[in-house]
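Bug #77: duplicate submission created two jobs. Keeping one. Sequence:
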Amino acid sequence: MALTNAQYDEIMRGYQSRQLRNRHLTQERLNEVYAKVPQLKSINDTIASLSVEAARKKLEDDNLSYNLLKKKIEDLRNEKKNLLLASGFDEDSFEPIYTCADCRDTGYINGEKCHCFKQEVINVVYSQSNIKNILSRENFNSFSFEYYSDEEINPTTGLSSLDTAKRAVDECKHFIEDFDNKPKNLFFYGNTGVGKTFLSNCVAKELLEKGYSVIYFTAFQLFDILSKGVFDRDADAIAAHQNIFDCDLLIIDDLGTEFANSFTTSQLFLCVNERLLRHKSTIISTNLNLNQMIDMYSERTWSRISSNYTLIKLFGDDIRIQKKLR
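Kept job's structure:
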């Protein structure tokens, strides 16, 4: 999606701030290491000096001297590694710290936008920068099975609420592990407060950390953007369509809470179908049951979903209410 100059500048200021912060953290770590093991500074200085000399000998085609210097450098590196480990430091303690090691916090790899830059664009354009705060709370580490009953049984599957939730978590983890074999899609349904959005956020966090681009919308937000592009010919909204169709993972939360009409029905089909054609993954969550889905969004749309998505039904008591009562 095209950025305004102000938006681009905002993103690049973020990268500059990240670089300064990480350089500071790297220097703090170096100071800590040198304070505890002073001889490491001398070893590093010697390695740097010998490396320059080795490069010179290489250019002069003096292979004998080059190989001797190379052996000295290797011995010093082994000595450095042993000193670090013996002193309780990691062997990579002298490596620079990067938030994104792929682009080294520049936003670009060989002139192309890094995956982290693409996610920054999404965060700025769709005002999703706060999603990281949500994901710091809602992730697999904080997911709890204690709110699911082992006594409440789904008569269709014979599984308890607890067993169903465990299977859902396993399915989500398999979805993440197998994400590159696209398209993989998830459809969460069930009553309010049974963990559908929470599980979507769990998946989003894992994939963001793996470097994939993720866009999260409530159904209302998604159809609002799509309508602006169609009816208002809003330039930003039109450009947003490209990211909606091309991001690695699109999450549509609370489908069915928007004002449903022929437009939303056609746009949902377009979104689902287009992402399938582009081999892009989607997660949909809804409080609607399957018959309501068909009635509201047509059999054609439901056919695409039912044949290409893993359907996961969660059930049980409202977790939000349970937390308040406890």
